[in-house]
C-alpha cells in the first residue's frame, strides 16, 4: 500500500464517486477503481457500498476515512519539512577548546559566505566530548587535537604547541626542564583536556607528576591567573601569543620538553555527507578562510 492508495480513497470519499475522483486526480477511472479494490483486498474490509450511481461509505470506511486524513496530513507535513530542509541546508561542526577560539569563528563565516542559505551550528568542548558527538552523529565533522579513538576518520589538519607563561614580574625562571617545571606553581587545564593530557604524558615519560595550584576548564581563567602572578600556565601558544606581545605575559623556555601536537579533522567513518556538508568540509580542509 502506498500514499497514492490513501489519497485516492480520500478523494473518492470527497467526491462520492469514482468518475469525479479520477477527474480531480487527473488519472483514468479504472486506475481509481483498481486502487480502491487493492485497498479493500489488502486489508480485507469493504470501504464503500454502491447505491444507484453513488458510492456510500460503510461504517468501516467512515472510521478509516478519518485515519486516512491524518496519514495524508502527516505525509504532506513531512514533504514540506523535507523541501524546507533542502532549501535550508544544515552543517554541524565541532572543535576542541583551542580550535574553537582560533578556527571556528572564521570557518563559520567562510561556510556561510560560500554556501547560500546554510544553517551552520557549532559546538566547542573537550576533544573527548567532541569525538563522542561525532560518533553519535551529533556533529558532521570537527577539528580537534589530542588522542582520538573509536570508529573515527581522522586526517592531519595542522599543528601547534603548548607554551609555559607567567606574569612578566613573577620571580620565576627564564627557562625550565621537566623536573624544574613540576616544582613551579602550575596553572593547568583539567584532566581529560587535550592540553593537560599531553603535558601529563610528557611528565610521565620522565617519571614526573605535578600538583597544580589551579585547575580549570577555562583557558581564559588560567590566563587571568597567570597575569595576576599566581603561577605558570601551560596553554596553547596561539591563545597566549597576543598576551606575550602586549607584555602581559612572558614565556618560560622549556628545555627537553616537546609540547608540540597535531590537530585533526575528524568525522564518523562511513558518514554520508550532504552536498552542503561536503562543501563545508572542503572549505575546512582547504583552509578557504
Question: Regions with pLDDT < 50 over 5+ consecutive residues?
Answer: none
Order of helices and strands: HHHEEHEHHEHEEEHEHEHEHEEH
Helix content: 40-55%
The major beta sheet can be summarized as: 10 strands, mixed
Roughly how many Å is the radius of gyration? 32 Å
Spatial gap, N to C terminus:
50 Å
Mean model confidence by pLDDT? 93
Which class of secondary structure composition applies to the elements?
alpha/beta
Describe the structure.
By secondary structure, the protein is an alpha/beta fold. Helix content is 47%, strand content 24%. It has helices at 3-15, 18-25, 29-43, 59-87, 97-102, 104-114, 127-135, 178-181, 194-205, 219-227, 237-245, 275-285; strands at residues 48-51, 54-57, 90-95, 119-124, 141-145, 152-166, 175-177, 186-189, 214-216, 232-236, 250-255, 260-268. Strands 3, 4, 5, 6, 7, 8, 9, 10, 11 and 12 form a ten-stranded mixed sheet that branches. A two-stranded antiparallel ribbon has the order 1-2. Strand 8, helix 9 (194-205) and strand 9 form a beta-alpha-beta unit. Helix 1 (3-15) packs across helix 2 (18-25) and helix 1 packs across helix 4.
Amino acid at each position: 500500500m502506498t500514499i497514492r492508495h490513501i489519497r485516492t480513497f480520500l478523494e473518492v470519499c470527497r467526491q462520492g464517486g469514482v468518475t469525479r475522483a479520477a477527474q480531480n486526480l487527473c488519472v483514468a477511472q479504472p486506475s481509481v477503481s483498481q486502487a480502491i479494490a487493492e485497498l479493500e483486498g489488502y486489508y480485507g474490509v469493504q470501504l464503500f457500498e454502491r447505491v444507484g450511481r453513488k458510492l456510500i461509505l460503510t461504517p468501516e470506511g467512515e472510521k478509516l476515512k478519518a485515519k486516512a486524513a491524518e496519514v495524508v496530513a502527516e505525509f504532506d507535513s513531512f514533504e514540506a519539512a523535507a523541501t524546507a530542509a533542502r532549501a535550508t541546508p544544515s552543517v554541524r561542526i565541532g572543535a576542541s577548546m583551542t580550535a574553537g577560539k582560533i578556527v571556528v569563528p572564521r570557518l563559520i563565516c567562510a561556510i556561510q559566505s560560500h554556501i547560500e542559505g546554510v544553517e551552520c551550528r557549532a559546538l566547542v568542548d573537550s576533544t573527548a566530548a567532541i569525538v563522542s558527538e561525532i560518533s553519535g552523529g551529533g556533529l558532521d565533522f570537527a577539528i580537534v587535537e589530542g588522542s582520538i579513538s573509536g570508529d573515527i576518520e581522522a586526517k592531519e589538519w595542522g599543528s601547534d604547541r603548548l607554551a609555559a607563561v607567567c606574569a612578566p614580574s613573577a620571580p620565576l625562571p627564564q627557562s625550565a626542564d621537566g623536573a624544574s617545571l613540576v616544582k613551579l606553581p602550575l596553572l593547568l587545564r583539567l584532566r581529560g583536556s587535550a592540553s593537560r593530557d599531553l603535558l601529563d604524558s610528557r611528565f610521565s615519560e620522565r617519571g614526573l607528576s605535578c600538583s597544580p595550584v589551579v585547575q580549570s576548564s577555562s583557558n581564559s581563567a588560567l590566563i587571568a591567573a597567570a597575569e595576576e602572578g599566581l603561577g605558570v600556565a601551560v596553554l596553547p601558544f596561539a591563545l597566549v601569543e597576543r598576551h606575550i606581545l602586549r607584555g602581559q605575559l612572558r614565556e618560560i623556555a622549556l628545555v627537553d620538553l616537546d609540547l608540540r601536537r597535531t590537530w585533526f579533522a575528524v568525522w564518523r567513518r562511513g558518514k554520508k555527507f550532504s552536498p552542503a556538508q561536503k562543501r563545508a568540509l572542503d572549505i575546512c580542509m582547504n583552509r578557504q578562510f
